[in-house]
Amino acid sequence: MSNEIKVVMYGLGYMGRGIAKLLLEKKGVKIVGAIDISKDIVGRDLGEVLKIERNLGVTVSNNSEVLLSKVEADIVIHATTSHLSQAYPQIAECVEEGFNVISTCEELSYPFEKNPELASKLDRLAKENNVTVLGTGINPGFLMDTLPIVLTGVCQDVKKVKVTRMMYSGNRRIPFQKKIGTGLSPREFKQKIEGKEITGHVGLSESIMQIAAALGWKLEEVVELPPEPVIAERELKTDYITVKPGQVAGLKSIGKGVMNGKEVITLEFISHAGVEEPYDEVLIEGIPNIHERIIGGVHGDIGTIAMVVNMIPKVINARPGLLTMKDIALPSAVTEDMRIYLEWEFL
Ligand SMILES: NC(=O)c1ccc[n+]([C@@H]2O[C@H](COP(=O)([O-])OP(=O)(O)OC[C@H]3O[C@@H](n4cnc5c(N)ncnc54)[C@H](OP(=O)(O)O)[C@@H]3O)[C@@H](O)[C@H]2O)c1
């Protein structure tokens, strides 16, 4: 078989480290470079950063320009930020050096309406350099967009799509628990959301626009209501934080897509430390109606790490440009040597 697939990790926070660890378990793929700006890890061996028993011979660099100009790789896995304005220069430099990119940046998952200029610049740059760029993850990336889109495949007609993610947040990573306001007072929550100190969930609009694009719907309005805090009624202990009664346990965010004066897409994202029965649900009003429910829901961190790794061969094999999940081969798990999936001609 040909050489292993070579990966550069760009961003080694919770997600980047989880992705790197999963890559180490897979056959046919190798990490050849690592970039991050965090003082705690720059200059250290990646094996040490990942707290595994051995050194990997890959030193974390804070100089992306130098590393990317000399490393030989097939793809960069990027996990530094939710916002495309910040991610753009980082992803652009990877593309200019000729690397495919998968990013967890939520706003990259469907950037054509909120960030049309950056999206078209990135698309052009990717085509010029003959590489593919994809924004993905669990949500946006799968549960509230790709999954409902795929489920409409058996519908002769679709009138409405509603997706609910009812998620227990207490076992999610600490950056996630912080961004949904866990443990804050209701007042602090309001101030931090208004001051953009915490983001809440990012990506509802992108998921709505991707569903609409897949269905050929021209929405006249996409509305994202301000996130509302969910207040704890009893003491709740998460893996990292104890939430007292009256404090914020998490949040509820609602997004709506409107066409011909009617709400045709509704996304409800509810995530807090008091959720007792988590689930992910898609309701499609159409011919036929569809009701799909994942009992227990999908753990967001496990799902994101898996999705990024599983999409590597598909992105390497995809046509050049800035693609979204609706444009690329269907996601599926990498269970064998990753190089096998590069041989699939239909990708
Ligand atoms: N689509 C999805 O479903 C999905 C799922 C999970 C996560 N995400 C998103 O993915 C991103 C990463 O998540 P995370 O939990 O891993 O966040 P995190 O723990 O904060 O990690 C981000 C890492 O990137 C580093 N970084 C920031 N700017 C950088 C730059 N210019 N160059 C190199 N490194 C840089 C950070 O360093 P410092 O700490 O020093 O800043 C940190 O080590 C977040 O925006 C998150 O919202 C999306």
Global structural class: alpha/beta
**Quaternary structure:** single chain
Helix percent reads 25-40%
What is the helix tally?
11
How many separate domains make up the residues? 2
Which molecules are bound in this entry? NADP nicotinamide-adenine-dinucleotide phosphate
Radius of gyration: 20 Å
Low-confidence stretches: none
- Report how far the terminal alpha carbons are from each other: 19 Å
**What is CATH's topology name of the largest domain?**
Rossmann fold
Largest sheet: 7 strands, parallel
Provide mean pLDDT, rounded.
96
- Shape descriptor: globular
Characterise the protein shown here.
- Helix content is 29%, strand content 27%.
- The protein is α/β, with parallel strands linked by helices and 347 residues long.
- It folds into two domains: 5-137 and 302-343, 3-Layer(aba) Sandwich (Rossmann fold); 146-297, no CATH class.
- The two termini are 19 Å apart.
- Residues 11-16, 35-38, 79-82, 90, 104, 106, 137-141, 173, 175, 304 line the site of NADP nicotinamide-adenine-dinucleotide phosphate (NAP).
Feature tags:
347 residues; alpha/beta; Rossmann fold; 2 domains; 7-stranded parallel sheet; 7-stranded mixed sheet; 11 helices; binds NADP nicotinamide-adenine-dinucleotide phosphate
Structure summarized in a few sentences:
The chain is 29% helix and 27% strand.
What's the topology here?
Elements lengths: L4 E6 L3 H12 L3 E7 L10 H4 L10 E2 L2 H7 L4 E4 L5 H13 L3 E4 L12 H13 L3 E4 L10 H6 L5 E12 L5 H6 L6 H9 L9 H12 L5 E4 L3 E4 L4 E2 L4 E2 L4 E12 L2 E11 L6 E9 L2 E6 L4 H11 L1 H6 L3 E3 L24
Helix pairs in contact: 1-10, 4-5
The site of NADP nicotinamide-adenine-dinucleotide phosphate has 25 residues, from helix 1.
